[in-house]
Design a protein that fits this description.
18% of the residues lie in helices and 25% in strands. It is built from seven helices and 14 strands.
């Protein structure tokens, strides 16, 4: 049967479980359920639109925790400079501080911010552009990534990057050594979050599309005033491809009344107790709240094939497109769905 929320509460241990590793994950890149393959590159038009959004929305990315002069306030109360300011700032060159191997095709990359007391300047939910031009490349490769390190972390920013065959940016990441540098730009604002904005949110993710979902979870469960319920549906190829699984299990144990996760594997191991195959209508009908019952929002992020099946594709990075797929069939409306 389908697991439901627990009826008994659990100690609210704040955010300690999810800060254990400080993992980041690649966002907005694409992975198919059967074959790990990097999809088409961003077009020049998409890049121009992303740059325009960085500039147009920079003034909107103000934090709830700011001083009177607009600077970020870290945990010790001292103002912290924001590395990424948007607007006309342009590209920021960061030094790779460390590399940690996570699994057979995934590494954690920590980049040093310009000053040890700086914070990134990102908000929930937002991402950064990265840029790299190899010696044989006519044009630079530009990709958006979502870091997972805390927004108030000082002096560094973390990413969890999975390497994809023929993926020029992910391959470049995996070829980097500490002390090498990479260009970043942003923030690119996505869905602005505020505490209790929705009663219940549902996160439907495939592969590395988990990044913005984890960013939302971190914002919600680090804030004692935010009582939002969260349902995660996460599809991958193999069990070892499930990023941040231990962190999500900690959330289920700590907040059994508010968080639950459902995993689908295309190639499950022997004895696998959860779902197999693609994320499908039968599963979503069982685990998602009724579309007309609650103040809900459904977030979708994953490979193009998943968008097509679940929600219909976006028209462009700035155009959500029409709602389609399983969510439309189940009776949800366009306003209830956000496609990362």
């Amino acid at each position: 049967g389908v697991r439901r929320y627990a009826t008994d509460g659990a100690p609210q241990s704040r955010w300690a479980p999810l800060r254990r590793y400080g993992l980041g994950a690649l966002g907005f890149s694409f992975v198919t359920f059967g074959v790990l393959r990097y999809m088409s590159e961003l077009s020049e038009e998409d890049i121009d639109k992303a740059n325009a959004r960085v500039k147009a929305n920079s003034e909107k990315l103000t934090s709830d925790s700011t001083s009177s002069d607009g600077s970020a306030i870290a945990n010790d109360g001292k103002p912290a400079n924001k590395t990424f300011k948007g607007g006309d700032q342009g590209w920021v060159d960061l030094k790779l501080e460390s590399v940690e191997e996570i699994n057979h095709n995934t590494k954690k990359f920590r980049f040093a911010l310009p000053d040890k007391d700086d914070v990134s300047g990102l908000q929930i939910a937002s991402a950064l552009l990265t840029k790299y031009k190899g010696p044989e490349m006519e044009k630079p490769v530009i990709r958006p990534y979502t870091p997972i390190s805390d927004e108030d972390a000082r002096g560094h920013i973390d990413f969890l990057i999975k390497r994809y065959p023929n993926g020029p940016m992910s391959e470049h990441f995996h070829s980097m050594d500490p002390l090498q540098r990479l260009d970043f730009k942003g923030p690119i604002p996505k869905y602005p979050w505020s505490p209790n904005k929705h009663d219940h949110i549902c996160l439907i993710s495939g592969g590395t599309g988990i990044t913005p979902m984890y960013q939302l979870c971190r914002a919600i469960f680090s804030n004692p005033a935010d009582k939002t319920k969260v349902t995660l549906v996460f599809g991958n190829v193999k069990e070892e491809d499930i990023l941040l699984k231990r962190e999500f299990e900690d959330l289920e144990n700590t907040y059994p009344q508010r968080f639950r996760a459902f995993y689908m594997l295309d190639q499950p191991p022997e004895g696998w107790m959860q779902g197999t195959g693609y994320i499908n209508l039968d599963l979503l009908k069982k685990v998602l709240p009724e579309p007309k019952v609650e103040n809900i929002k459904i977030f979708v992020c994953g490979p193009p094939g998943m968008y097509k099946a679940i929600s219909g594709p976006k028209k462009s990075p700035s155009d959500q497109g029409d709602l389609g797929g399983i969510l439309k069939e189940l009776g949800y409306t366009k306003d209830q769905v956000y496609k990362f």
